Amino acid sequence: MHGKEPSHWQTQPPPGWRTSYRRRALAEWVTDVNDGAGALAARVMANRLWQHHVGRGIVATPSDFGTRGAPPTHPELLDYLASQLVDNGWRLKPLHRAIMLSSTYQAAGSYDPDKAAKDPDNVLLWRRPVRRLEAEAVRDTMLSVAGLLDATMYGPGTLDPASKRRSVYFTVKRSNLIPMMIVFDAPEALTPIAERSTTTIAPQALLLMNNPQVREYAKALARRVAGSTPEASARSAYEVALGRGPTANELADAVAYIEADGKDQGLVDFCQALMCLNEFVYVD
After folding, report:
1. Running DSSP on this structure, what letter comes out for residue 283?
2. In angstroms, what CA-CA distances link 124 with 9, 30, 45, 72, 120?
3. CA 71 to CA 73: how far, in whole Å?
């Protein structure tokens, strides 16, 4: 603590207050970049954000910055990101923006045998790692493209899988877990997890094809993108769900698919098929 006594961060509670304000003192120490742990806390937080976007932290052991942890691959970059976090008042959005505008984040994911020979594990990020959305983001994205997402902030949680609120508002009850969250590797909430596991298993595809909530999202997306012709509907569905227009071959296949089942039913099935694509659940 750089010679400072714990009382340096202690704030006296108001008269008659029911708590000691010790947690306030801890928070002041954690964020004090001059005399407390703020410099380390900023590096840890910046590293976690980099890991979230890129798939691997600048420090590969995000919960261990000590002598037994991995050294940073780019210490100057980590220091820069940490300083930006502090300079922006510990606001995360500016740091998200800085990372996502970087050439590293925007790099292609294509394979280069020459670079792979020099860095087979992609430690230096010569290509963009493949990264699947987290369980919460998979569900929230489906709600969003369907036009059903309730963005109301704060308030009580819920155990209702049919809820339209963001997944962060699901109450964690070990005897009543949300199936979609579990199948897509939502972490155990009772223990801290520095790095989420990412699995690719058959139940994920089966859930996207058979889950009643997913079917509801597909119907809502179909209503949202319905156009005067199957071609117009298919174009709109691609733009809303995947953020791009279809290729000529994709458009021809989509129109044939929609028309084969009847315009309305075929469009719902097509919208659900888009939600089942790797492109929908993977960051590209």
Report:
1. E
2. 40, 31, 20, 11, 10
3. 6
Within 13 Å, how many C-alpha atoms sit on residue 11's CB side? 12
**What span, in angstroms and rounded, lies between the C-alpha atoms of 2 and 4?**
6
Question: Where exactly are the structural domains of the chain?
Answer: 37-100, 132-284
In the numeric block, which tokens belong to residue 265?
A: 């039913």
CA distance 170 to 165: 8
Q: How far apart are alpha carbons 94 and 100 in whole angstroms?
A: 10
Q: Give dist(CA 12, CA 23) in Å, integer.
A: 12
Closest CA to 127 of 106, 107, 155, 149: 107
**3-class SS of residue 132:** strand
DSSP secondary structure of 55-118: SS-SSS-TT--STTSPPPS-HHHHHHHHHHHHHTTT-SHHHHHHHHTSTTTT------HHHHHH
| Phi/psi-derived region of residue 64, left when phi > 0, alpha when psi is between -120 and 50, beta in every other case | beta
Q: Phi and psi dihedrals of 138, rounded to 5?
A: -60, -50
Ranges of the chain with pLDDT below 70: 1-3
Please give the Cα distance from 137 to 19 (Å, whole number). 37
> Which residues contact residue 234 at a Cβ distance below 8 angstroms, ignoring those fewer than 6 apart?
246, 251, 254, 255, 258, 270
- pLDDT for 1 equals 43
